[in-house]
Design a protein that fits this description.
It catalyses: (6R)-5,10-methylene-5,6,7,8-tetrahydrofolate + glycine + H2O = (6S)-5,6,7,8-tetrahydrofolate + L-serine. Residues 25-132, 160-433 form the Serine hydroxymethyltransferase-like domain. By secondary structure, this protein is α/β, with parallel strands linked by helices. It is 46% helix and 14% strand. Among the domains are: 68-162 and 218-225 and 243-326, Aspartate Aminotransferase, domain 2; 332-474, Aspartate Aminotransferase, domain 1 (Alpha-Beta Complex), CATH 3.90.1150.10. The chain is globular. The two termini are 32 Å apart. The model has no long low-confidence stretch (mean pLDDT 92). Bound molecules: pyridoxal-5'-phosphate (PLP). Pyridoxal-5'-phosphate (PLP) binds next to helix 5. Pyridoxal-5'-phosphate binds next to helix 5.
Length: 485
């Protein structure tokens, strides 16, 4: 089997971290201690959080240096500050690696997170499609030429724009036009869901909604949908109604980079703009980036300071290292293993009687409907955590328990795959999960109705499972050979 974990020299990395912690401890030993404790906790945890991963020591070490001190507003070669030649080097490298990795004509690596990447993209579409014509109408060539009245008219025009995105309970993201987020205040929003019978995206229904609603932006992408999305079809829908297609691949960027999602399922050739995080399945530093077709490049470049604070050069440097890692053949093997493992986990759960939203998975996510165990997502999440299994509760389509308690638990394979877990380990994980859930019962509230939050796990099972989970993670140590003392 190809090694899917990032390789590093354990003795060198150990020496680097030991020295770094010693330097930190000279100022505030409790922080150094907490850093060590975090490694221990991560090592001990059976982590099934679908949005988390473990970056390589090379990626992590790239973030701790003097690049952090540099202001670098602007773009490569056009900075508002002097002395940015080295920042230029790493930002250009990160962008080049991103373009090559994803086959994209243009990449912007400054966003600090996935949400920031979306803001840049939304702004870019407004600037390209609304602001430019508004400027022309006002007889102005540049935003700076606009009068207060022009701006008022522009704000009105911007406020009237529409966004169509995947509904939250079908797995969409808060930033895809939902009211608690700025995207829901910038845009009038409507959403598409999944087919109630199959749990799958119904592209004809998306098209019908788009024809009716005529959005400026059609959003695609998800945080909790366990299937591939046909981006070629989404582009057809966008084109038919004159919308700009933005695909937020935050969750599955690693599967795009690792060539698991190709052809119609690769967002890059189909979307006008692609946004992403760099720290989820892609296994890079915490951050975001934007890929775009050439006509959106100038508007995307204005991301900072239009909607972003100054770029983080140390993180852009780490993106360059992570993208370089993702261009290695090893990463393709990793991405395939992530999906193969999700299938093993899904099969293991289904075989033991669990119900999965859509009946299975085609990506790194398994969405478990826990209502069959008489539990809410919150109870299931807590009971699993008591048993040493780290997951997060998640709404399922038409969730009877709402977005807080929920009826689902989301499981993901990227992190444990990085540790080297394979089919056997994920089958064992499925066994542990079903064991815990089948032996958990809600406790009653004072009026005798079942609580949505309180529960009991049958005597001793939580402890027993925690020991079994610890045994399982011990077989695939995180950062093998890395010792802090
Ligand atoms: C995780 C996620 C984000 C947010 O990323 P942050 O880096 O936490 O800002 C945005 N969109 C989708 C689809 C996500 O899954």
């Amino acid at each position: 089997m190809t090694d899917v974990t990032p390789s590093f020299d354990a003795a060198t990395a150990s020496a680097a971290y030991r020295s770094a912690l010693q330097v930190i401890a000279e100022v505030e030993p409790r922080v150094a201690e907490a850093i060590g404790a975090e490694l221990a906790d991560q090592r001990d945890s059976l982590k099934l959080i679908a949005s988390e991963n473990y970056a390589s020591p090379a990626v992590l070490l790239t973030m701790g240096n003097w690049f952090s001190d540099k202001y670098a507003e602007g773009t490569v070669g056009h900075r508002f500050y002097a002395g940015c030649q080295n920042v230029d080097t790493v930002e250009a490298l990160a962008a080049e690696h991103a373009r090559e990795l994803f086959g994209a004509p243009y990449a912007y690596v400054q966003p600090h997170s996935g949400i920031d990447a979306n803001l840049v993209a939304f702004w870019a579409v407004l600037a390209q499609r609304v602001e430019a014509p508004a400027l022309q109408a006002a007889g102005a060539r540049h935003v700076n030429d606009l009068t207060d009245e022009d701006w008022a008219a522009l704000r009105h025009a911007l406020g009237d724009q529409r966004m169509l995105g995947m509904s939250l309970d079908a797995g969409g993201h808060l930033t895809h036009g939902f009211r608690p987020n700025i995207s829901g205040k910038m845009f009038a929003q409507s959403s598409y869901g999944t087919d109630p019978a199959t749990g799958l995206l119904d592209y004809d229904a998306v098209a019908a909604r788009a024809r009716e609603f005529r959005p400026l932006i059609l959003m695609a992408g998800y945080s909790a949908y366990p299937r591939k999305v046909d981006f070629a079809r989404m582009r057809e829908i966008a084109d038919e109604v004159g919308a700009t297609l933005i695909v937020d691949m935050s969750h599955f960027a690693g599967l795009v980079a690792g060539k698991v999602f190709t052809g119609d399922f690769d967002p890059v050739p189909h979307a006008h703009v692609v946004t992403s995080t760099s720290h989820k399945s892609l296994r890079g530093p915490r951050g975001g980036f934007v890929l775009a077709q050439p006509e959106y490049a100038d508007a995307v470049d204005r991301g900072c300071p239009m909607v972003l604070g100054g770029p983080l050069p140390h993180v852009m440097a780490a993106k360059a290292v992570a993208f370089a890692e993702a261009r290695r053949p090893q990463f393709t093997a990793y991405a395939q293993a992530v999906v193969d493992n999700a299938v093993s986990l899904a099969d293991g759960l289904t075989r033991r009687g669990a119900r999965l939203v859509t009946g299975g998975t085609e990506n790194h996510i398994v969405l478990l409907d826990v209502s069959g165990y008489g539990l809410t997502g919150r109870q299931a999440e807590s009971a699993l955590l008591d048993a040493g299994i780290v997951t997060n509760r998640n709404a399922i389509p038409a969730d009877a328990n709402g977005a807080w308690y929920t009826s689902g638990v989301r499981l993901g394979t990227p992190a444990l795959t990085t540790r080297g877990f394979g089919a056997a380990e994920f089958d064992r994980t499925a066994e542990l999960i079903v064991d815990v859930l089948s032996n958990t019962t809600p406790t009653s509230t004072r009026d005798g109705s079942p609580s949505k939050a309180k529960y009991v796990v049958d005597g001793g099972l939580a402890d027993k499972t925690r020991a079994a989970a610890a045994e399982l993670v011990a077989t695939h140590p995180l950062y093998p050979g890395l010792e802090l003392s």
